[in-house]
Automatic annotation (TrEMBL):
InterPro entries hit by this protein: Asp/Glu/hydantoin_racemase, Asp/Glu_race, Hydantoin_racemase-like, Iso_Racemase_Enz_sf
Molecular function GO terms recorded: amino-acid racemase activity
Residues of the signal peptide: none
Family statement drawn from the similarity comment of this UniProt entry: Belongs to the HyuE racemase family.
Protein name per Swiss-Prot or TrEMBL: Dcg1 protein
Amino acid sequence: MTDSLESEINSLHLSSNIIVDYYTAPENAPSSINNDLDAENSSNVVMENLSEDYLKVYDGILVACYSDHPLIYKLRSITNAKILGIFQASIIYALQAIDNKSDKVAILTSVDEWEQILDNAIINFLGVGSFPNDRFVHTLAANLPILKLHEPDNYSILMGKIQNLVNKNVKIILLGCAGLSTLDYKMKNDFPNIKFVDSVKIGIKQLISFIEIGNV
């Protein structure tokens, strides 16, 4: 998955003065993150594995798990680097990308454990008391394991889920898992009137802009 994300970020042809390094959690971390417990366990493993001295060389860190991941907040407590999660980046983008009030946004995710978790994350991020039905449709899971999302045999399942969201007037679909990264172009070809948001690519661009603003 890390190799796939590196390929996606390389496709952006970022400025030559921007150096991007990649980090994968060690083997004792969960192999994939499917719920809040996995997220907490993965953050603990990463925090034990990374040193403050190692982090000092970075101006920004993108946490490439699509959730309100505890690692975001733990990293902020030990480094002055800008820290951004791909979930937060995609929501920020979606809020400014809605063209009409009747258009809706939805998250397409991996397994159904994430549906309520991500709906709650939207509520918390927007600071509202209940799910914002005026702008969002509830998160929809493909019910595929994260590491199976890229398999060609499963693409038709994703297409069925997307059609379900389109039928609910969704115009912007946030790819709610790093495992869905790289599929946005293919999906756009099949649904040309829908905006598919690759949260990793949006995330790295936003992170760079936050760093640049902080240096002004």
